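Quiz preparation item.
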């Protein structure tokens, strides 16, 4: 019995869906199904009832019984792996845009506190550069807003966040939704990795303001909006990037009328990444 078999069964049992379980473990559906089948053959029982189309599944009575055993097995495996691999300080290199680092700052602290021998090395890159940085092994984990397929990478969407309009003003608009045509493009502040680098965002700016939009400023991070967003200025951000801005009474948040799009966040991992790293990702970023 191997860890990958147990891991596959637990993912399938928890998610009740082959596709989602495969994405979570960064493997193909066929590889996941093979791991489950070899586990069932080894212990001599059917653990999962496969419905038509294979995607949605449910556990058999024996599968429900085995799940608690599998979780105990996984826990022991993790403890043994941590004992053998983290007896010396391990540095985990994370590459992401500044806005993502801000979003995950408390989580980074949690990782270092809970894993006493883990050290994080956090580097800031433009979203478009993240896949190449992980491909070249200059980072162990990458987060970015632009999808790129690569034979060297495991790529998974881990988040999809609604976009909101942020406006700086002494007064609040009467409506909770703003017509894009009412916005002055010369007062827009664009955030790198979120604005023109993301296809959906870029398409929005282009459709409403043209290819030569006369924006106010281009900045690295949403935190810079405190100093760079002018009175009457605006910016479009993922909803989960606006928490710090809400501390300022002059920042107001609206929906874009008749316009709805989200910002996906992708996790990039090299296909040759070791199991310790995959376990850390599963624990903290799933």
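Solution:
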């Amino acid at each position: 019995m191997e860890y990958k078999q147990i891991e596959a069964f637990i993912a399938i049992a928890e998610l009740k869906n082959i596709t989602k379980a495969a994405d979570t473990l960064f493997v193909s559906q066929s590889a996941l199904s093979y791991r489950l089948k070899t586990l069932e053959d080894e212990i001599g029982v059917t653990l999962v009832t496969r419905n038509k189309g294979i995607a949605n599944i449910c556990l058999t009575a024996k599968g429900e019984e085995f799940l608690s055993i599998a979780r105990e097995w996984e826990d022991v495996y993790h403890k043994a792996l941590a004992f053998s691999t983290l007896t010396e300080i391990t540095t985990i290199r994370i590459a992401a845009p500044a806005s993502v680092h801000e979003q995950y700052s408390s989580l980074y602290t949690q990782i270092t506190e809970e894993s006493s021998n883990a050290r994080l090395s956090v580097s800031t890159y433009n979203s478009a550069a993240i896949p190449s940085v992980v491909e070249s092994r200059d980072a162990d984990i990458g987060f970015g807003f632009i999808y790129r397929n690569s034979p060297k990478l495991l790529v998974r969407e881990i988040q999809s966040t609604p976009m909101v309009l942020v406006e700086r003003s002494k007064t609040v608009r009467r409506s909770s939704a703003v017509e894009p045509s009412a916005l002055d493009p010369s007062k827009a502040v664009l955030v790198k990795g979120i604005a023109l680098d993301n296809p959906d965002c870029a398409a929005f700016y282009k459709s409403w303001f043209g290819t030569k939009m006369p924006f106010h400023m281009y900045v690295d991070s949403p935190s810079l909006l405190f100093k760079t967003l002018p009175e009457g200025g605006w910016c479009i951000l993922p909803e989960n990037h606006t928490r710090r801005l809400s501390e300022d009474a002059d920042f107001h948040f609206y929906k874009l009328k008749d316009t709805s799009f989200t910002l996906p966040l992708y996790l990039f991992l090299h296909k040759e990444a070791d199991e310790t790293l995959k376990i850390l990702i599963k624990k903290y970023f799933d």
